[in-house]
Amino acid sequence: MDQTPRGNRLHIAIFGRRNTGKSSLINALTNQDIALVSSVPGTTTDPVFKAMEILPVGPVVIIDTAGIDDEGELGQLRVRRSLEVLNKADMVLLVIDAAAGVTEFEENIARTCRENKLPIVTVINKNDIHPVTAEQFEQTRQQLGVRTVVTSALTGQGISEVKIAIMKSAPPSWDEQAIVGDLLKPGDLAILVVPIDPAAPKGRLILPQVQTIRDILDHHAMAYVVKESELQACMLSLQKKPRIVITDSQAFQKAATETPPDVLLTSFSILFARYKGDLKTLVAGAKAIKNLRPGDKVLIAEACTHHRMEDDIGTVKIPRWLRQLAGGELDFQWSSGNRLPASLSEFKLVVHCGACMINRREMLSRIMQAQVAGVPVVNYGVCIAYVMGILKRALSPFPLLQESL
Amino acid sequence: MDQTPRGNRLHIAIFGRRNTGKSSLINALTNQDIALVSSVPGTTTDPVFKAMEILPVGPVVIIDTAGIDDEGELGQLRVRRSLEVLNKADMVLLVIDAAAGVTEFEENIARTCRENKLPIVTVINKNDIHPVTAEQFEQTRQQLGVRTVVTSALTGQGISEVKIAIMKSAPPSWDEQAIVGDLLKPGDLAILVVPIDPAAPKGRLILPQVQTIRDILDHHAMAYVVKESELQACMLSLQKKPRIVITDSQAFQKAATETPPDVLLTSFSILFARYKGDLKTLVAGAKAIKNLRPGDKVLIAEACTHHRMEDDIGTVKIPRWLRQLAGGELDFQWSSGNRLPASLSEFKLVVHCGACMINRREMLSRIMQAQVAGVPVVNYGVCIAYVMGILKRALSPFPLLQESL
Question: What residue ranges are annotated as transmembrane (chains A, B) (predicted)?
Answer without folding.
Answer: none
